[in-house]
């Protein structure tokens, strides 16, 4: 939606950002006292620390599909392959579906798991996931292992209703505190280093961030140059576990 190079201007009163529409050749100029960047990990608006091993994240990659399972040959209608229809399976790390030695070795170094969520009737959502890989693996490889596992387990489909491709950077460099743009969510590397989850943590912190922004800009003579850095420092201090986990994960992953 934007072209970062030359699109942001800061002054004592606030910031101006130019937004470029993908559908139309028009540019929209938006003025704000503080820009909060929640555009995700791939954002180019936020400056990050670029030293040592904190720079490069690991990646959680997954391929999932909502399917209708063929139960015509099933001898046990309470099961779909090894999975109980009344239970969710989160981490099926078994590797007995690999017959090729090279795949077995690779699966040991970068293991994947199957996530199975039975829904109504014969509808099930399956997902094959690399919890974290560095560098990232391809979606196609994850998709191939998805079908290889389910084929080995004897799970056949009559229909693939919907597909999902999941890409989550995990760890990585933290935003530099002393900058005019306040980072939030994926842009601030607020991703749990062992699950990839982050939405609840963001929702817990966003009210604190809003209060800190309000307190600074409501002053009789607010210093906008210091407002965003002050909020970022306050936010990281108030929610240290987010940042501590990311730094620790980055260290361990390397």
Summarize the structure in words.
The chain has 254 residues and is α+β, with helices and mostly antiparallel strands. It folds into 2 domains: 34-54 and 172-253; 58-169, Alpha-Beta Plaits (2-Layer Sandwich), CATH 3.30.70. It is built from 5 helices and 12 strands. It has helices spanning 101-109, 139-152, 199-217, 224-238, 240-253; strands at 8-11, 14-20, 27-32, 35-37, 58-69, 79-80, 83-84, 89-92, 112-118, 123-133, 157-170, 181-183. A 5-stranded antiparallel beta sheet has the order 8-9-10-5-11. Helix 3 packs antiparallel against helix 4. The chain is elongated and about 75 Å long. The two termini are 34 Å apart. Residues 241-254 have low confidence and may be disordered.
Helix content: 25-40%
Strand content: 25-35%
**Spatial arrangement of strands, main beta sheet:** 8-9-10-5-11
Query: Which residues sit in consecutive blocks of at least 5 with pLDDT less than 50?
Result: 241-254
* CATH class category label of the largest domain: Alpha Beta
* Helix and strand sequence: EEEEEEEEHEEHEEHHH
The CATH topology of the largest domain is Alpha-Beta Plaits
Give the integer mean of the pLDDT values.
82
